[in-house]
Amino acid sequence: MKINYVSLNKQSKDQSQKLLKIFRDCLNKSIFVNGDEVSKFEKKVSRKCGTKYAVALNSGTDALTLALKLVGIKKGDEVITPPNSFISSTSSIIHLGAKPVFVDTAEDQNIDANKIEKKITKKTKAIMPVHLTGRICEMNEIIKISKKYKIPVIEDAAQSIGSKYYDKPAGSIGDIGCFSTHPLKNLNACGDGGFLTTNNKQYYILAKSLQNNGMLGRNEVKHFGYLSRMDVLQASILDYRLDKLDEVIKKRRSNFRLYKKLLDRTKIFFPDEKKYQFNTYHTFVIQVEKRDELINFLKKKHIQTAIHYPIPIHKQAAYINKFGKEKYLNTETQSKKILTLPINQYLTEKEIIYISKNVNSFYK
Ligand SMILES: Cc1ncc(COP(=O)(O)O)c(C=O)c1O
Fold first, then answer.
1. Other CB atoms closer than 10 Å to residue 121's CB: what's the count?
2. Mean pLDDT over all residues of the chain?
3. Looking at ligand 1, which atom is closest to the CA of residue 132?
4. What's the CA-to-centroid distance between 360 and ligand 1, angstroms?
5. Does residue 110 line the site of ligand 1, with CB under 6 A?
6. Ligand 1 test: best mutation among 95, 137, 180, most atoms within 8 Å of CB?
7. 134 Cβ below 6 A of ligand 1
């Protein structure tokens, strides 16, 4: 048996007829940007995320940049965030001249909400938790702090479309939610894409203009903006795939349940899903001793795995050169133990049994 970490080719094959029709329709219409399909997707995805508004963009990275801009982040400000995310959770802060202030992670790899308040200073102008792996952070605690200090919350929900926390969808809990529709995400485009969500009309109006070079209509510009539009082709693909998202999530959740049943939890750690959580398993990360040996062992059994993320952001040369050395114990310990097992919706039960058997046998 040979198991790849991702199965995008299976998805492309499975959906090729419909995707080709979307491509053809797009060519026939020849309206490639700012078309009605983009507004249609925005309306549909805002409903899915439980917010009044969504703005379609060309990446999750741009969603973060625009969100930070919308809450007024500028040079010298501080933004609280965890050090164990994809690099753009931090680079988006740095590009606006602000300073990322890291808070270490809890055992589930999400930001430790109990450690946030200690890091707040007069310069703190936003809190940006990252809902890693499709699990929402402890938002009740975070929102409490946000209200106490009047600091806006930007949810980096790039990995968590459809996830819920006390029944509230990701992206609807903070002031702004930021999503990625990168090909590897649960809701994925055939290229780069992303969007932001909000209930704040001012943010919505400003974001709509900022993503289109600051234009209001065709000729007027009130604020200098960016070019960060989602194109019509990607919006049409996402509109189609959004109808399938619940199915994707259902399959990933059922894959998780099977892993939970099969993996030897005396040797393999992964956090349970709490009663108030609805996790969507963008990734399934286990924490184990002898991680690198396990990777090689699985490779020999033709099982591909991944690590999200092997080098924490504060350990990256780009960060150390700018801010010097810092230490975040849990993040660093986890970075040596974490291993992402395949969990995509195209995996079969047989394949999960094969992966679990092999992981267990390595620790026997
Ligand atoms: C947590 C997190 N934040 C931000 C991003 C950036 O999204 P994109 O790749 O669409 O720019 C990603 C995507 O990998 C992510 O996983």
1. 9
2. 97
3. 1
4. 31
5. no
6. 180
7. no
- For 15, the token pair is 């959906």
pLDDT at 350: 98
Q: Looking at ligand 1, which residue's alpha carbon is closest to its atom 8?
A: 60
How many angstroms separate the CA atoms of 82 and 311, rounded? Answer: 13
Cis link prior to 226 (omega < 30° from 0)?
no
Q: Mind listing the pLDDT tens digit for each residue in 283-302? A: 999 999 999 999 999 999 99
Sequence-ordered list of residues with C-beta below 8 angstroms from that of 348, at least 6 positions apart, any chain = none
CA of 182 to the centre of ligand 1 (A): 7
Domain boundaries, the chain: 8-103+110-242, 245-363
For residue 212, pLDDT over 90 is answered with yes
Say whether pLDDT at 7 is over 90: no
CB 88 near ligand 1, within 6 Å: yes
CATH class of 8-103+110-242: alpha beta
SS3 at position 333: helix
Does the CB atom of residue 108 touch ligand 1 within 6 A? no
pLDDT in tens, 97-137: 999 999 999 999 999 999 999 999 999 999 999 999 999 99
**CA nearest to 194, candidates 203, 183, 209, 205:** 183
Write down the number of H helices and E strands in the chain.
13, 14
pTM here is 0.98
Q: Rounded to the nearest whole angstrom, what is the distance from the C-alpha of residue 215 to the centroid of ligand 1?
A: 26
CA distance linking residue 135 with residue 142, whole number of Å? 15
CATH of 245-363, one of 1.10.10.410, 3.40.1280.10, 3.30.70.3400, 3.90.1150.10: 3.90.1150.10
* 130 close to ligand 1 (CB < 6 Angstrom): yes
- Alpha carbon of 94 to ligand 1 centroid (Å): 16
